[in-house]
Predict the 3D structure of the following.
Amino acid sequence: MVAVIHKIKSSEVWKQWEKEYLRRQKSDFFHNLKIYEALYEEARLLGVLPPANPLEGIEVKIKLAKALNAIATAGKDRSLP
């Protein structure tokens, strides 16, 4: 048996092939869950999770949530049509 090895000369061709390959792959919830759980366990073993103070930075998160969920109202200079 003869092995045939092809060298990819163009990195753009490889990137396009890889992008299409990944796009065609079906998402597997249970596989992704295993990856998530392994990463969480690693973070826990490293002492990163759970945080020492879970409420640390909550003020910033609340301020950001308020800004993102704000309902814009039309002003005098921006009247509705």
Remarks:
- Helices lie at 11-24, 29-45, 58-68.
- The mean pLDDT is 86.
- The radius of gyration is 25 Å.
